[in-house]
Structures are given as C-alpha cells and as structure tokens.
Amino acid sequence: MPPIEIIPRPLSLILVGLLAVGSTAQTWCGKHYSPDLPVVPPGGNFPIPVRFDSPQIALRCSPAIRPYLPEDVASSDTTFASIIIDAPITYSGISNAVPIKLPSTTSTGLEVRVTIDGKTLTRGTVKLNSTKTLLPFSLRNLQPRKTPYDISCTASFSTQTFHATSSLSYLPNPPSTIGSVTKMDMRTGALLARPANGKGGPYTPVFPVHPIPSFGSLTALDLVLDEMQQAGLYLMYDMRGTYQNKTSVTEQVNRIKSRPNLLLWYTADEPDGTTDPLNATSISSNLIKSLDGGDGKGGVGYHPVSLVLNCQDYFFNEYTRGADIVMQDAYTIGNNATFSTVWNTVCTKDFGDCG
Ligand SMILES: *[C@@H]1O[C@H](CO)[C@@H](O)[C@H](O)[C@H]1NC(C)=O
Ligand SMILES: *[C@@H]1O[C@H](CO)[C@@H](O)[C@H](O)[C@H]1NC(C)=O
Ligand SMILES: *[C@@H]1O[C@H](CO)[C@@H](O)[C@H](O)[C@H]1NC(C)=O
Ligand SMILES: *[C@@H]1O[C@H](CO)[C@@H](O)[C@H](O)[C@H]1NC(C)=O
C-alpha cells in the first residue's frame, strides 16, 4: 500500500513521497504475512507503564532551541534562550516518574534550579502539574562548542527534591563547508531557517520539498536542487536505501551539507517494517551529525535528522533513538488496515502485511 508521507504539524509543512512497500522480507513489522507461514508473535511492543495508587512527578527539562548559535546572544525574543520545564503529576510509571507527597492545600510550587557544571544557569518557580514553563537564561555565560553541555535540573518542593537532566547544544558559527542552519524550536515544534535561496535574511517559515531516491544521476539531482534553491524551496534530503552504508552516507552528507536550502536529513524509511537492525538509525544519525558540525555522540549538528516509521507498535523506542523528528505515514481514508488484499489474509497484532 503506497502511503503518502506527511510531516506532522509541528514541522509546519508537509510533503510528499511515495513508498515502495514491496519488501522481499519474510516479515513486515516482525509479523509473518504469507498465508502458508505460521503466526509468531513479533514482540517489540511498547512497554505499558505500571499504574501507581499514589501520585508521581515526572520532571523534565529541555532547552527551547536546538542548537543555539553565537548570533542568539543578541536575540530580541526574551524566551529564545530558555529552559522548558515540565512537571506533570501522573499515576503511571512513565520516564523519570518518582513519588511525590502532595499537600492537602494549594501550595507555592516547585523551586527549580538549572545548572551546568554546578553553576546556576537559571532558576524559577514552576507550578505543580504544569508543562512548558520557560526559564530564560543568558548565553553569555557559555562558550560555543561542538560538544553539548550537560544540564541538570533540580526541583525542590517543601522537603522533597526531584531531578532531571538534558543536554544543551551551543554550536560555533558554521564553517564554510556548511551552507545553512536549521534550529528546532521546542516551544512550538517549528523549524527555523534562513531563506532557502542563500541570499541571507531573517529566519522564516519553511516549505520543504522531499525528493525520493534514487535520483537518476548526480547531475540531475544537482539541477533540481539548484532550481529549488533559486525558487526558495527547502530540501529534506532522503537517504533511504543507503542510510546504513557509512561510505555512502559520508559521501552524500559531504556533498549536500554546503547547500543553503538544506533543511533536514531523512534516514530510514519504515525501518521497523523491514526490521532493520535496532541500532541502525542511531548509528546513522550519529555519523550524519559528526559530519554536520556535531560531536557524533548524541549532540545535534546544524540540521536535524528525521525518519518515518510504519508499524503500529514495534520497537518504537529503539528506532526513534536515531531521530530528532519522527514522522508518520498517512494512509488514505478508507484504507482497510485489517485485511491485506495482496496476500488475501487478515491483519492482526501477530500476523499480516499491515503496520
Ligand atoms: C494534572 O493535570 C491533568 C491535565 O491537566 C489533570 O487531568 C489532572 O487531574 C491533574 N492532576 C492533579 C493531581 O492535579
Ligand atoms: C556503499 O556505498 C559505496 C559508495 O556509494 C558503494 O561503493 C558500495 O558498493 C556500497 N556498499 C554496499 C554494501 O552497498
Ligand atoms: C548494532 O547491532 C548489531 C546487532 O544487530 C551488533 O552486531 C553491532 O555490534 C551493533 N553496533 C553497534 C555500533 O553497537
Ligand atoms: C476489510 O476487508 C475485509 C475483507 O474484505 C472485510 O471483511 C472488512 O469488513 C474490511 N474492513 C473495513 C474496515 O473495511
């Protein structure tokens, strides 16, 4: 079934590609689908969090922008340099959830302190059970560097203390081999980029185009990309089919990264469907970032890495570890997701050629 790929709303635009799903693998999403093969549970299900009787707090913190650049010191946006704090109260054993003793009366809130190497970056009061509180900080206290900073967030609430960690990327100005920078705005989910024609100007909303490989020839690809640049169209550069080949990825990234209209990288197309190795997406992402201004060990580069998953519930955590942006395949309305007309079999959680 050829789905249409849609970049979800936070990315603010949308594009287009047809997929070849005609995989020769014996499984799809880890499931047998040929009628002569047995039903074998595929595993890889997303773990269902345990339920607690008592409240938990799942403190989270993250920089508002990834990455920061030296130019951001002068930003007039007062929350551009800030740390986003979430302090949800939950009864599920989600990531970083720990017990909290809630007062019977309404109280003042959490006193949050964000530090780097023990030095305070910012602090403030955050309401219990709130999300997206912004604590502004000054980039002047930090030096740009390739390696991300480890940030530590501590929340005090009467006699209780809670912790979370994150990383903050503050990269130097890009070298001449890098043609553009794309910042992820975690406050809104938007991508921020300067005009795609390479002539300079403020960061603007983006309209990416997503050519699907193979590209015929490099000459043909270059002609298309040159035209796109002139027309002010951004590029989502797709390495499906080659993303696990380090030599090929290195060649492609080094060829494309000087383009001013490069918006983001795209690695794997439905790697969960084809059951690519569980570490393939993160290995590829680290390599790409090491060639694109990052440290190659988890810090971001000058452009985010994206991928698309297909399966309903198959090793989601593992495959998304290699992605800053996870996209979905949007299938047509009316598509029958419980029956495969190609194989003439039902699709269930354990069997069939569906997601
Ligand atoms: C926390 O917020 C959620 C969502 O707004 C709400 O449903 C829930 O009742 C709140 N929990 C507490 C303990 O206040
Ligand atoms: C990997 O990519 C290189 C460079 O494009 C190519 O020469 C090589 O054949 C590829 N290897 C595999 C296993 O496809
Ligand atoms: C990736 O996983 C494979 C098993 O699928 C393993 O053989 C390989 O060593 C892993 N690579 C890294 C870099 O961890
Ligand atoms: C899907 O197809 C099967 C077999 O033709 C049919 O029984 C079922 O009702 C269909 N489901 C939907 C939602 O169309």
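^ 2-acetamido-2-deoxy-beta-D-glucopyranose complex. DSSP finds four helices and 23 strands in the chain. Helices lie at 218-230, 246-256, 280-291, 316-320.
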